[in-house]
Amino acid sequence: MSTYRLKNLLSPRSVALVGASARPGSVGRAVLENIGKAGFKGQFGLVNPRHAEISGIAAVKNLDRLDFVPELIVITAPAREVPGIIDQAGRRGSVGALIVSAGLGHGPGSLYEATIAAARKYGMRLIGPNCLGIMMPAVSLNASFAAHMPGPGNLALISQSGAIAAGMVDWAAQRGVGFSGIVSIGDQIDVDLADLLDHFAMDHKTRAILLYIEAIKDARKFMSAARAAARVKPVVVVKSGRMAQGAKAAATHTGALAGADAVYDAAFRRAGVLRVSDLRELFDCAETLGRVESPAGKRLAILTNGGGIGVLAIDRLVELDGIPASISADARKKLDAALPPTWSGANPVDIVGDADAARYATALEVLLADPDNDAVLVLNVQTAIASAIEIATTVTELVGKYREQHRRWAKPVLAAWVGADQAIIQTLSNAGIPNYPTEDDAVRGFMHLVRHREVVEELSQVPPAMPDTFVPDARAARQIVTAAIADGRQWLEPVEIKHLLEAYDIAMVPTYAATDVEQAVTCAKEIFAQGGTVVLKIMSRDITHKSDVGGVVLNLTTPDAVRAAATDILDRARKLRPEARIGGVIVQAMVVKAKARELILGLADDPIFGTVVVFGRGGTAVEIINDKALALPPLDLQLARDLIDRTRVSRLLKAYRDVPAVKHDAVAMVLVKLAQMAADIPEIREFDINPLLADETGVAAVDARVAVGPPQKKFVGSGPANFAVRAYPSQWERHLELKDGWRIFVRPLRPEDEPIIHEFLRHVTAHDLRLRFFAPMKEFTHEFIARLTQLDYARAMAFIAFDEKTSEMVGVVRLHSDSVYETGEYAILLRSDLKGRGLGWALMQLIIDYARSEGLKTISGDVLQENTVMLEMCRQLGFEVKPDPTEPDIADVRLKL
């Protein structure tokens, strides 16, 4: 598993620092002093070959001379010594190392590679190198050279920048915000963003996870971990380099639109990660998510003593898609009775500039009881009439009583005291009330809570591997692309594109390829015979945008006009682009639809995230208009609708004035089909439909370009190797017949199966649960079951079996791969009253078949020695069974695939 041994690294019982320095101002000295100041309570040892003691702490010359085996090694020694230190630590039995040192280099023969090789020999995990370190308040460990140690709390921070991590610590100290852990990951030699997301997602002390990202190495692994984590708690990210451009010049409009940051944005959206633009907004997120739960809806009531600031808050709320809460009739009646007649009478509830603490309390109490809002924002503009600190104290006392009365169902309460001094900030923070310097920050904080709730709902939807509303002729389409690649071509010809679209039931206007002028006239006559008009376009693999060379002529109605236009197009192209290969002209029926919308749809290839689907407003000025949205495939109709809705042109797809609405879901279905095409034919590098005409009758592609090439295997495992997100693997659904004709249905587990799992566990005895989980299990929390059901189908897979007659769940088998995707760890559990009927054997065979298809090399598992039935089945399936060298009660079972 990617979390393998991570708990030992982040909550070690013993630590050794290798490379501590006596020199003031050195990294080694700073780390040593920080470990001492934090008061780590476990065993601690100091290793330095040149000093017998440093800062009063005795040192030994090497790890072998320590009188204990340290779980975690912290390394600040010179880079050249790191591989040897790792090897020595591995021999002693250390679990892992934090490498603060920089300068290991990269590539074959480097210290970096030597360090990896040394760690793998012993199964050690590594954090770093070139990092600030780790700060784990829960175990009083500050193995970093940060200036401060954060207090304990419920936020986790994972940062690719040591400076950003240090800045967060300083901010948190001022705001009274604590952390469950801070990890600076540096160069990610082993432990990466995804591993730590997995760890903190299941850490019950962590309420929300904050990320600072510069670049992602393994996109599929990151997407897998981020999607799983975001289902159970908020994940917030700041990504630097937002304005950086793509690394290569794009050959199509879709390629140009799919800039590097736009793809990251699409990836974060698909993963359910909340993206913020800068550190200030990250601080605001931390302020909100670290203190309150998400509201039931997005209706916000605003209580203020200043009308202007209240209106500004409402404006920002509406702009961010929040809803200004209405005031119920009962609440209005109570407010009328308690407030001066000059109060606003609406939301924002302006209780007038002379409002004192008592008036605030009265109004807040009414709003908290009002069912017409989901949260309350309290604003205060300080005046000389009423004490701001007294109002803050009264508000915190009232909110405390409200939370105590309602506990689990309490609404979030947020605050913004304009110009507040530290005493007011401390008062609100100590009461767990998120507070901000301005109304804008506060509203953004509220909307982060709203967005997280929406994310959880969105992530419960699982797109199918193949939409069942159409059956494409994938074989015919693949033959077209394969033939072009075999011919050494990078681009499909127009007629090939038309046949490719036909294979996926995407309409395209009648299109012909003519190699000379007279053939163009012949093709045009076929269109004229059907009462149409003709458009001619230059046909050249080297001319990307036809209009740049005057290579498009419209509204041709006679053969003579076609002859003249074709001659002009060819002559002009040869004159302006003498080096270009001119293949002739494209002859198309000209579609005149005055009320049709011009759209662009396509596929682009991103070097990090693989295939990306692009949608937006089309036409020749598409890059200038820049009205586009991106999504990672696979898509279903709902995901396609969401993609469309993120563009301005989506509003034009609806009816307005005398223009009918575009046919329902016609555009969304084309997006789904394009995504499916990308899954079926990874040889498609870029696909550009521009324009796609859409109106009330449907859609039709007018022009398209398709770039092809040998498939690139970006991601390991089965499924489309060009997709960073694995589709729901419906191809693994099975109907099986077991002993005595017992028929079962087996399918991959889905996130929404949590209630089924709870019911299933009621039919498993305490003894069988102990054999499965190695400990007595009295209850199963939502968080625990979420860990079992939130699969990504990339590193983790589980199959659940149902009795076909009763539809009851009868068993589950799961497999989770390690971080390098070589070994998978299995687990299996059956209903206790149905054992002995061949179900366990069938599920084990299925998971073995799945592991082979994924390219895993080994399946392993831990089995209690008393579980003799499981051990015997493993032997019959070919597993090697050995006693665990460190746990005599456990057998290690392993099958080489």
UniProtKB/TrEMBL annotation:
Keywords: ATP-binding, Ligase, Nucleotide-binding, Transferase, Tricarboxylic acid cycle. SMART domains: CoA_binding. One of its GO terms (biological process) is tricarboxylic acid cycle. The keyword Transferase applies. It holds the Pfam family CoA_binding_2. Residues 744-897 form the N-acetyltransferase domain. Coiled coil: none annotated. InterPro entries: Acyl-CoA_Synth/Transferase, Acyl_CoA_acyltransferase, ATP_grasp_subdomain_1, CoA-bd, GNAT_dom, Ligase_CoA_dom, NAD(P)-bd_dom_sf, Succ_CoA_lig_flav_dom. It comes from the Bacteria. GO terms for molecular function: acetate-CoA ligase (ADP-forming) activity; acyltransferase activity, transferring groups other than amino-acyl groups; ATP binding. Gene3D superfamilies: 3.40.630.30, ATP-grasp fold, A domain, ATP-grasp fold, B domain, NAD(P)-binding Rossmann-like Domain, Succinyl-CoA synthetase domains. In the N-terminal section; belongs to the acetate CoA ligase alpha subunit family. PANTHER family: 3-HYDROXYPROPIONATE--COA LIGASE [ADP-FORMING], ACETATE--COA LIGASE [ADP-FORMING]. This is Acetyltransferase. It comes from Bradyrhizobium daqingense.
